[in-house]
Amino acid sequence: MQDVLFDLINGMAGSSPVLDDVMLFAAGPLIYLLFAAAGIVSLLAMRKQGRTTNVWMAGQVGAALLLGFLVNRVLRMMAFHERPFQTRTVNQLVQHEPGVSFPSNHATAAITVALVVGIFVSALWGWLLALPALLVAFSRVYVGVHWPSDIIMGGLVGIVATVLVWWAAKLLLRRRSGAEEIDDLADITAVLPRVPAAEETVVLPKVRS
């Protein structure tokens, strides 16, 4: 199945100069434009928010990317398979060093960037950036440097890493807000009049007749 899907995608390489140029652009410079667009969208959104919110959002974005690349590094240490051009004949449009290709860092980065923008900044812009992100991922198979499974796993790593960071951030905020509510309650009860317990004796003032 892996070979069939690879042949289906990579087999198109070399059949159209225009399509080849588009895929070469997508496999290389497009990811930098994707990062730039995501950065601009995020900066524009930050202008409308407070400093604490911006730092919190930037931290989640950085954590998602870092987690994704750390997982990829661990998976690559397992050396599941080499790049397609090392084991078979391919239509290779770009030069690339041999080595382990599972999972794809390009796919992880592109999908993560689109997803974090969609979750933390704007759902609309997240969907818009998803299109070039998927094109980046697809092009890596087209030019012959990745297997389809590399792209699929790279995308899954990006999705799982982003969702985990988002979930952990929400949990942390919920616990922090709960602690603040407890502190506020303690402050309030400290200034309230003390109600004696049932077993305590209440001494009433004497009333002169």
What key attributes describe this structure?
209 residues, Vanadium-containing Chloroperoxidase, domain 1, single chain, globular, 8 helices, mainly alpha
Structure description:
The protein is mainly alpha-helical. It has helices spanning 2-10, 17-27, 30-46, 51-77, 84-87, 105-120, 123-142, 148-191. The protein has a single domain (2-176), classed as Vanadium-containing Chloroperoxidase, domain 1. Helix content is 71%, strand content 0%. The longest helix is centred in the C-terminal third of the chain and has 44 residues, at 148-191. The chain is globular, with a radius of gyration of 28 Å. It starts with a helix and ends in an 18-residue tail after the last helix.
Task: Detail the topology: elements first, then pairings.
Elements (H helix, E strand, L loop, with lengths): L1 H9 L6 H11 L2 H17 L4 H27 L6 H4 L17 H16 L2 H20 L5 H44 L18
Brief synopsis:
The protein has one domain: Up-down Bundle (Vanadium-containing Chloroperoxidase, domain 1). It contains 8 helices and no strands. It has helices at residues 2-10, 17-27, 30-46, 51-77, 84-87, 105-120, 123-142, 148-191.
Count of the domains: 1
Rg result: 28 Å
Tell me the span between the first and last alpha carbons.
103 Å
H/E topology pattern: HHHHHHHH
Average pLDDT level: 85
Low-confidence stretches: 181-195
Beta-strand segment tally: 0
